[in-house]
Each structure stands twice: as C-alpha cells, then as structure tokens.
Amino acid sequence: MHNANSSSDDQLHGHCRHIRDYGIFDENIFLIGFMGTGKTTVSEYLKTLLGMDVVEMDEAIARQEGLGIPDIFAIRGEDYFRNAETCLLKQMQNRKGFVVSCGGGVPMRDENVREMKKSGRIILLTAAPETIFERVRDSHDRPLLENNKTPEYIETLMEKRRPKYEAAADLIIHTDHKSIPDICDEIIDGILSMNSGSDLHR
Asked: Looking at the whole model, is its pTM more than 0.70?
C-alpha cells in the first residue's frame, strides 16, 4: 500500500515539474460542487502539492462579516450572502495562482461563472448523494441541509443544481471511492490537457 501511494505522489510531483511551462500558475483553479464533494480537502492537497495559495470562500466571507455562515443566513439573509460571494469572485480578477474552494451555491449565478472564467479553470467535483450524506451527516454548519439531512433531499437539491454545475464546468471529476491524490492527479492532467489544447489554437 505504501508503494502505491509513493508511486501516485511521484507521478503528481512529476506533473508539477512541468506545470510552470503550461502556465497553470498564471490562472486560478476554481473548485465547484455540492457540499461534501471534497472541495476543501482537495484544495488543501493542491496547496501543498503545487504551492498555490487557497481561498476558502465560506471562511473568507465569515471572517469579513465577523459571523459564521449559519448566522449570516439567519441575520442578513441568503441574498446578502450570495452577493458577498459575487463580490469576492470579482476581487479574484487581480489575483492569480490561487485554488478557490467555492460554496455550493456559487455556480448558480451566471455572473459568478463569468467572473471565474475570466481568471481560471472551473473544476466540478461530484459524488453520489449517499456518499455526500455520509460526509456531512455530523456537520451543523450547512444551513441548507440542517433540517433536511437525508440522501433523498440531497439528491433533490443536487438535481436542481446539476444543469448549472455542469454548464459552468471546464472539467468534471467524480470523487466517489477515489483518494485525494488520485482526484488531484485527474485535475492536473485535465488542466494540462486543456492548456495544451489552448496552445494549439493560439
């Protein structure tokens, strides 16, 4: 098992030796997807692997507002929070080389998608409703699920969001039954492939 992990890490670090040549550090990586699909964990691994800084949108907004996300929803309302998300994405226009872990509702606004595409690649992480339920069942900082934490409700909400998610994505990664290094491997391969294709058409 150790050898397999070492091989995977070696492969990823092999990619990293060539990343600057492909210009990945000249753009941002936006991770989108439903809550519990692994955005935070993947962004932290990419930070370590690629030396890119991470912006965790929910955390950044909570620090800015001086309130937790559930309190922002309760006191100031969802529209206020969604506007804060859009404002933060606009600020990213002047920042390059970041991994941005987006809140689950970010891609639902077309304006947000346009802002993300101005400065980077959008990667959709997805998973089965049952997988997501197991990952979030003990969490109490997800206002949209707090009173409806079942696989069935998760599936309903995911299906509502799926068209917007998929339309926004430059790359879709299924995270079920995959290790974090394997997921990051797919992301890096996908971005390298997209950038290489873009170079061919310049």
From this structure: yes
CA-CA distance, 106 to 86, in Å (whole number)? 8
To the nearest 10°, the Cα dihedral for 30, 33, 36, 40? 0
Structural contact between residues 99 and 54, judged by C-beta atoms closer than 8 angstroms: yes
Q: Phi and psi of 194, rounded to 5°?
A: -65, -45
Written as one letter, the residue type at 10 is: D
Sign, CA dihedral 167-42-78-127, equals: positive
Beta bridge partners of 120: 28
Rg (CA), the chain: 17
Q: Per residue in 125-174, pLDDT tens? A: 999 999 988 887 766 566 566 567 788 988 998 999 999 999 999 999 99
H-helix segments, 23-150? 39-50, 57-65, 69-76, 78-91, 110-119, 129-136
Residues making up the chain, counted from first to last: 202
Question: Could you tell me which residues come within 8 angstroms of residue 180 by beta carbon, excluding any fewer than 6 positions away?
Answer: 38, 41, 42, 45
